[in-house]
Amino acid sequence: MYFQSRAEAGVMLASKLMKYRYDNTVIVALSDGSVQVGMQIAAELHATLSLLLTLPVDIPGEDTFYGMITQEGGMVYNSDLTEGQVDDYYSEYRGNIEEQKISQNSKLNKLLGSGGILEPDILRGQNVVLLSDGLNNTREIDVALELTKPLKIERLIIASPVASISAVDKAHISADEVCFLSVTPNFIDTDHYYDVNDMPNHEEVLKMLNEFVMRWR
Asked: Among 71, 77, 181, 209, who pairs with 67 as Cys (CB 3.0-4.6 Å)?
């Protein structure tokens, strides 16, 4: 399934989530592209919209990632790696991994405090929608799940216009409810599923999000 734009996909997803309208709901966008989808959903549901900041730590020369740096400065390891693999990769690439951690933490620290960035405490007692614009793997989901563990939330929903089969399987295990418009066995890349890819840069996304939050307060 293909979409004209992320905004169109957001309207379509919102129609599937209408039972949460006016019902203590927080939309947690998991990426910049997810913000464009989430703005439509939050407007329709009269829900809060926030962006979860994460950045990856990659494994040199490998087509996978080691973990994700959270906005709190912690590391959530790739859930597809065994504990032994995590240790082995660290032993082999310690210097590179530590350099990436320092660099990514520095980038995140510069962004904290911007309007619309998620403050975890707002999730308490809420229906929480973890939203992606295209879910190929679960790296951002893993971070969000770790974040919500100590919080008592009402209900956890994972949503995306398009997702891979493996991501959907993980979502079913992790969430109270899932909402996907399309599931594909051969996920290409997120942009492939949208006719219009007019993604603003990260600073512009934060500005859009801040203006949206201020308008709906």
From this structure: 77
